[in-house]
Design goal:
Elements: H1 4-18, E1 23-28, H2 40-43, E2 52-56, E3 59-64, E4 67-72, E5 78-83, E6 92-98, E7 107-112, E8 119-123, H3 146-153, H4 160-164, H5 175-185, H6 198-217, E9 258-262, E10 265-269
Antiparallel strand pairs: 1-6, 2-3, 3-4, 4-8, 5-7, 6-7, 9-10
Helix pairs in contact: 1-6, 3-6, 5-6
The protein binds a DNA duplex through loops.
Length: about 280
DNA sequence: CTGCTTCCCTGACGGC
DNA sequence: TGCCGTCAGGGAAGCA
């Protein structure tokens, strides 16, 4: 379940292997992932040079002159650069074969996604894909801060955790990091978004930035399904204070952490430290 | 517009 | 050991 840090780690891992390389061939073993894979992927991508590998929210974009391949890893997706003769395994849905270049011969960018919540779509040059419209700011950008959260939250009755996970408010804060940031900022995930003060939103924005930046620095969280782009399993254990610790003692006060569902998502918080 | 629910999919895990 | 039910989770879509 890649969250933003895992996607950014993937981007950084892939970029040196992909940028400047020509896509020689596209192999689709399924016609669809979450959505049908559009015909442009087969029709326009072969022969194109990948100019840059970008990230927007949890989407990756492979930019070429004829357009951009838009990838989302969903819950269980991974991208790896492998020798072209690597045997295909279960759930290897898409290959982008890369043309030889110097000593770097016969490689393939392989997209594996057991649960198929991911997608591979196409964005024409100069356009912004429908899915990327209406997204909130990047959490690590200057546009995202406490004042911004405060302004956007006025009148919102939804729990602050739901608000924080709304991609139209800020992108890339999934269930794990939302729980961690709220713990860090001492805010109850149940609190009405519109009733959190400006000052506390300042603390929350800082917590989000700190936690995401740290996770990126560490190469993404542990995440069961995450595999780093060079094929090494990315099992970094990030010390999580809240997520997955229901019933266990609060790392700050020792009182048992509470666990419950907020908006159909499991949440853990400390009833004493988070108000 | 906000907010709530449902659904997609498969592997992991617990219970019998 | 094997079968089966349940859960997880990003986020779009549909509905109130």
């Amino acid at each position: 379940m890649p969250e933003l840090p895992e996607v950014e780690t993937t981007r950084r891992g892939l970029a040196p292997h992909l940028e400047g390389r020509i896509v020689s061939d596209v192999v689709l073993r399924r016609p669809d992932l979450r959505w049908p894979i559009p015909p442009e992927i087969r029709a326009l991508l072969p022969g194109q040079r990948i100019d840059s590998v970008r990230r927007r929210a949890k989407y990756l974009l492979l930019d070429t002159e004829s357009g951009s391949a838009l990838l989302h890893l969903g819950m269980s997706g991974s991208l790896r650069v492998l020798p072209a003769d690597t045997p295909v395994e279960a759930h290897d849905h898409v290959d982008l074969n890369l043309a030889d270049r110097g000593r770097s011969k016969g490689r393939v960018l392989r997209f594996n996604d057991p649960r198929r919540f991911g997608c591979l779509l196409w964005q024409p040059p100069g356009q912004v894909h429908e899915l990327l419209r209406g997204l909130g700011p990047e959490p690590l950008s200057d546009a995202f801060d406490g004042d911004y959260l405060f302004a956007r939250s006025r009148g919102r009755k939804a729990p602050v955790k739901t608000f924080l996970m709304d991609q139209g408010i800020v992108v890339g804060v999934g269930n794990i990091y939302a729980a961690e940031a709220l713990f860090d900022a001492g805010i109850s995930p149940l609190r009405e978004a519109g009733k959190v003060s400006r000052e506390r939103y300042g603390a929350l924005a800082e917590a989000v930035k700190r936690i995401l930046a740290y996770a990126i620095e560490r190469g993404g969280t542990t995440l069961r399904d995450f595999i780093s782009p060079d094929g090494v399993p990315g099992y970094f254990e990030l010390e999580l204070s809240a997520y997955g610790r229901g019933g266990q003692p609060c790392p700050r006060c020792g009182k048992p952490m509470k666990e419950g569902a907020i908006g159909q998502r499991t949440t853990v918080w400390c009833p004493r430290c988070q108000r």
